[in-house]
Write a structure and sequence with these properties.
This protein is an alpha/beta fold. Strands 12, 13, 14, 16, 18, 19 and 21 form a seven-stranded antiparallel beta sheet that branches. Strands 9-25-24-23-10-11 form a six-stranded mixed beta sheet, with helices on both faces. Strands 1-2-3-5-8 form a five-stranded parallel beta sheet. Strand 2, helix 4 and strand 3 form a beta-alpha-beta unit. The chain is globular and about 85 Å long.
Length: 846
């Protein structure tokens, strides 16, 4: 799509224009004083709006923390997601930013994907509809949503360089579709490219991707790189990339100006980039309505936002099994065993760039004590799941008495003379960021961080160190780690820039205070500098025995199992779907002594549940944000119906999954060998029964989903291609005694044709909250694309117009294929999961 240049483009010099194409700081664009444009700031999402800091590093301000992506997908409720998006739009403004780096719409290709918790679903239609709702909500507050990662970033293994090989049909029907829906239906204002290559070319300079985005979908916003993503100057400019993030210039900015001067890049291409940037800034009104961090936003109503985060968490929770033990009447039970490592330390968000410092994080244990009565609840951890020693926090105190470390920074690399500046860190991460922390450069400095640790438990403690550059740790006057003399091996921490964890065992005394000193040398240029420490008492060996003893004497046993940042995080993939540690054994032993064992699964992605038939109930609670604890109590006690439905299939074994033979890749390449058959499409094609199917979820009430009616039983494909729709109406009655939610799911089964297609695909859904005895109606709209598939073959083309050619009707035609509808009989299936069809009705397309 061609449009005229922004009028202020020609008022800028070449260098001024080029400066706008590269980050000015880690989180902002360059200001242009000549035309009155300020720096425009952005912040990470999608669980919250963190502000201008990296996750877990530096002195962060608190942020609203909403449910993670897979939890939002599990709500099957775009209206609620839109409201939560609006919450983050307001929060983004409060954090002094105009762009929120969210949502993440990559697919759950494999349950092992490290960032699955951040993404919505295995299904592109559900992902796209959820993303569009999120985008509408964010942008309703004058903030640009940034849909990411475009495209094929469905794993963390070698993500910066790996070549993702996807055939054109699979790319169109599966991996591009969520982006397309977010652009077409919600007018997303920004797109972030993926780090990886796609079919040999880095996404940030992949011309075919940009052609689809801008020409076919009509996208008029900006396209930016992921942080430190790679591309070439000429390739990126030719493709139409707008912004390289963050600072400093790597291939854009001054380098783009040089390329224009040398004739490698026409200045007209630079003008188009700048024009798109300035147009976006006008839409965000950055000149007359700049945002300042910390301001009170009128729309930021804390009570409403807290209620929404709690509702979002509750609506995401999926009841997977129930023998009648749920819901629990608190007044009818005398004792409750709350067990498991995630009960006292729940995980409410995934690791990596999605992390925020939540405003509040009550433990599940605290909420259950409130809900059931503290006198009835007994807690035991049962087992330990930490892969690494947790970062020290609560018992660390700096010289000033504040939590964390005091850091003295020196202008040399040997800690001599007076400190040039002093700063504070709030926990065991003595980490500085070049270009983000004031006065911190890329190299040629040193620092000394000091703190004390107040021990409250006698006995052996694990003391752990991860360094990001040459560090020495002195504990109680003794050097216990010396990475200056001999650097530790590289590990996965700090996005792959940190070392492997070094652990020593120290014998400590309760009541004593121990001095901790970290000395660091910034000898070579890098972005992250410093080290982090973790401290914990060595766990007693009888953890599980104590938990089983408590379970045996309790009326109900609530076992909270799950993962944490060690297992689900940006930066690395999981290696197994088994629960970490001895959690499976804990569930088995507890279930053997208590028939009312309820398992609460606190993960962002599927895990194996080999004990599922031995327990009275299972609830999947995801990473539910700051409302998780209260929402869980609401669901357990029946205050609200468990209305979530699975947005992804839960396999019995990892060997059953679609990508098993092609994940995570080899020789710097990953082939999407399963093609179109992702998630439930694969299980249907291979006749494999999952542990729990896509769309599944139980309720505390019952529903009667009546026969659907459709607006037409015969329709011309050519009319659909011109915009005609088919309406499917489904009456649903709540036949139980409780208010509850039914999720009507509409799948389309195609006729046999020349192109191989999945047996059925989700093309419509509606969530209905219904009072006991009442009836509600779901109205679903099917259009041309509901029945179409992508034909990459040689076809007669009339670009972007519907044409009839023999047996096929085509629309949205490009040089590489077209969307086609094969005439024939399609089956509209109304279901409550991908594996449970309730009604079918045929429609003839001619």
């Amino acid at each position: 799509m061609t449009r005229s240049l922004h009028p202020k483009t020609n008022e800028l010099t070449l260098d001024e224009k080029a400066s706008l194409t590269a980050g000015h700081t880690t989180w902002s664009t360059a200001p242009l004083a000549a035309i009155g444009v300020p720096s425009v700031h952005m912040t990470d999402g999608p669980a919250g709006a963190r502000g201008g800091v990296f996750p877990g590093i530096g002195n962060q301000t608190t942020s609203i923390c909403i449910p993670c992506g897979s939890a939002l997908g599990a709500t099957w409720n775009p209206e609620l997601v839109e409201q939560l998006g609006a919450v983050l739009g307001s929060e983004t403004r409060r954090k002094g930013s105009h762009l929120l780096l969210a949502p993440t719409v990559n697919l759950h290709r494999s349950p092992l994907g490290g960032r699955n918790f951040e993404c919505y679903s295995e299904d592109p239609f559900l992902s796209g509809k959820t993303a569009a709702a999120f985008v509408r909500g964010v942008q309703s507050k004058g903030v640009a949503a940034t849909v990411k990662h475009f495209v094929g970033n469905d794993q963390e293994y070698e993500r910066m360089t790996i070549d993702v090989v996807i055939d054109q049909r699979t790319l169109r029907e599966m991996y591009l579709l969520p982006f397309e829906i977010a652009v077409r239906e919600a007018n997303a204002l920004a797109i972030m490219t993926a780090y990886n290559r796609l079919n040999g070319t880095y996404c940030a300079e992949n011309e075919s991707l940009f052609e689809i985005l801008r020409t076919e979908w009509g996208f008029e916003g900006i396209v930016m790189t992921d942080w430190f993503g790679g591309a070439s100057t000429v390739g990126a400019a030719r493709a139409g990339l707008d912004l390289q993030m963050p600072a400093p210039d790597r291939f854009y900015g001054s380098r783009l100006a040089t390329a224009v001067r040398s004739g490698e890049v026409p200045e007209e291409q630079l003008d188009e980039i700048v024009s798109r940037m300035l147009t976006l800034f006008d839409e965000l009104d950055v000149q007359s309505a700049p945002v300042v961090e910390g301001i009170v936003v009128p729309e930021l109503d804390e009570s409403i936002h807290r209620a929404l985060t709690r509702a979002g968490a509750a609506e995401s929770m999926v009841l997977l099994a129930n023998t009648g033990a749920l819901p629990i009447n608190p007044s009818a039970i005398g004792s409750v065993a709350v067990l498991g490592p995630n009960a006292a330390t729940p995980r409410i968000m995934g690791g990596g760039s999605a992390e925020v410092l939540p405003r509040t994080m009550p433990s599940l244990l605290q909420a259950l004590q409130t809900g059931f009565g503290a006198e009835k609840v007994t807690f035991e951890k049962g087992c330990d799941i930490d892969l690494r020693v947790p970062i020290a926090s609560a018992r660390l105190r700096s010289e000033s008495g504040e939590a964390g470390f005091t850091i003295d920074v020196f202008d040399n690399t040997n800690w001599t003379g007076s400190p040039r500046l002093t700063m504070q860190r709030v926990d065991g991460r003595a980490i500085l960021l070049a270009g983000q922390d004031p006065g911190i450069g890329a190299s040629n400095f040193s620092f000394r961080a000091t703190s004390t640790y107040a021990c409250d438990v006698d006995g052996p403690h694990h003391f752990a160190v991860v360094e990001v550059g040459p560090s020495r740790v002195i504990f109680d006057g003794r050097v216990i780690f010396d990475g200056i003399t001999s650097a530790a091996p590289k590990g996965e921490a700090f996005f792959g820039m940190g070392s492997k964890e070094f652990v020593s065992v120290e014998s400590l005394e309760a009541g004593r205070t121990y001095d901790i000193v970290i000395e660091y040398q910034a000898l070579t240029p890098q972005f992250i500098h410093g080290a982090q420490i973790g401290i914990r008492p060595v766990p007693p060996i009888d953890l599980m025995d104590r938990a089983v003893t408590v379970a045996a004497r309790s009326d109900v046993a609530l076992v909270v199992v799950g993962t944490n940042n060690d297992w689900e995080s940006e930066g690395y993939d999981r290696t197994t779907i088994a629960l970490p540690g001895d959690q499976d054994e804990l569930v088995r032993r507890v279930a053997a002594v208590n028939k009312n064992t309820i398992v609460i699964v606190n993960t962002g992605a599927p895990v194996a549940m080999p004990w599922v038939d031995d327990v009275a109930g299972v609830i999947q609670i995801w990473f539910g944000g700051e409302g998780t604890a209260e929402a869980l109590t609401d669901v357990l006690t029946g205050v609200t119906d468990p209305s979530g439905r699975l947005p992804t299939s839960f396999p019995k074994r990892i060997e059953d999954t679609p990508a098993f033979d092609n994940f995570p890749g080899e020789n710097n390449q990953v082939r999407y060998g399963e093609g179109l058959f992702v998630g439930y499409r694969w299980y249907h094609r291979r006749s494999i029964a999952p542990a729990f199917p896509f769309g599944f979820g139980l309720s505390y009430t019952t529903f009667d989903m009546a026969e659907p009616s459709i607006s037409a039983h015969t329709v011309l494909a050519a009319e659909l291609a011109k915009g005609a729709n088919v309406t499917v109406t489904v009456p649903v009655k709540n036949t139980g005694s409780r208010r509850g939610a039914s999720v009507v799911q509409c799948y389309i089964a195609p006729p046999t044709g020349s192109l191989v297609r999945p047996q059925q695909e989700l093309k419509g859904f509606a969530k209905l909250w219904i009072e006991p005895g009442a009836t509600a109606e779901a109205s679903l709209t099917l259009d041309f694309r509901s029945f179409a598939c992508w034909d990459p073959g040689d076809v007669y083309r009339s670009p972007r117009q519907a044409t009839v050619t023999g047996e096929l009707v085509e629309a949205n035609v490009s040089d590489t294929g077209s969307w086609v509808v094969t005439p024939g009989t399609y089956v509209i299936r109304i279901a409550d999961s991908a594996d449970h069809t309730l009604h079918s009705v045929n429609i003839e397309i001619r």
